[in-house]
C-alpha cells in the first residue's frame, strides 16, 4: 500500500514508537489522510478522521492526568492553561514533525503538491489519529505512556514558559481579568471538498462578533479568530 520510500519512513516510525502492533492495519489507517481515500476511491478503505476523534479524547485525558499527578502545586486555572498549550495544534504538529509523521502519510497528490506533509493541522491530526490507534491496539495505559514520552519536551517547555502562543487561552484570560465573562467560538463558513477544506471561525463576546480567522482546520481558524479579537480588544484599550 505504501510506496518504497514510504515503507522506509514507516519502518523508522515504528522503531521510534517501540510498539509491537496486534493489528497493523490500525497504524495504516492512522497514517491515511482523507485526500488519499478521496482520490483513490478504494472501497472500504478508511482514512484517519475517526481515529483522530478518538485520539483527541485520549490526549485530553492523558495530559490532564499527567499534569494533575505530577504537579500538585498547580490550581485548576493553571492546569487548564497548561493543558491547552500542550494539546494545541502547534505543539502536536511539533511532536508529529519530530516523529516524521508527515513523511509516512498516505496523501492525495493534490494535497501533497500544496505542502500538506508540512501543514501543522494535518500533522497535529495525524498525531491524534496515531494515539487513537495505539489506544485501540494497546490500551489506555500504553497509549498514555507513549503520549507522555513523546510530549515530554513540549510539556517541559510549556511549564517553563517557552511554548508557542495559544491565542484562545490568552483571549479568555484577557476577558476574565476584566469582567469574568466567557467567549464562544462558532464556525462561520466551510469551503472546499472534504479532503481540502478551509474554515472561517468567529469568536463571540457578549453576543457580538469580536474577531474572525481562517485556517485549514477548525482549531487553527479559532486560533486566528482569537488572535484577531485580542488585537481588537487591545486597540480599544489604548484608545480609552
How is the secondary structure organized here?
Layout: H1 4-17, H2 24-30, H3 34-40, H4 49-70, H5 76-86, H6 89-99, H7 101-104, H8 109-113, H9 120-138, H10 140-159, H11 167-179, E1 183-191, E2 198-205, E3 208-215, H12 218-239
Antiparallel strand pairs: 1-2, 2-3
Helix pairs in contact: 2-9, 4-5, 4-9, 4-10, 6-9, 9-10, 11-12
Concise structural overview:
This protein is mostly helical and 240 residues long.
Q: Structural class per helix/strand content?
A: mainly alpha
Q: State the helical fraction.
A: 55-70%
The H-and-E topology, N to C, reads as HHHHHHHHHHHEEEH
Distance between the termini: 61 Å
Query: What Rg do the Cα atoms give?
Result: 19 Å
Total strands: 3
| Top-tier CATH class of the largest domain | Mainly Alpha
Strand content: 5-15%
Unreliable stretches: none
Task: Give me the CATH fold name of the largest domain.
Answer: Ribonuclease iii, N-terminal Endonuclease Domain, Chain A
Tell me, rounded to a whole number, the average pLDDT.
87
Specify the overall morphology: globular
CATH architecture of the largest domain: Orthogonal Bundle
Number of domains: 2
**CATH homology superfamily name of the largest domain:** Ribonuclease III domain
Widest sheet: strand ordering: 1-2-3
Largest sheet: 3 strands, antiparallel
Oligomer: single chain
Number of helical segments with 4 or more residues? 12
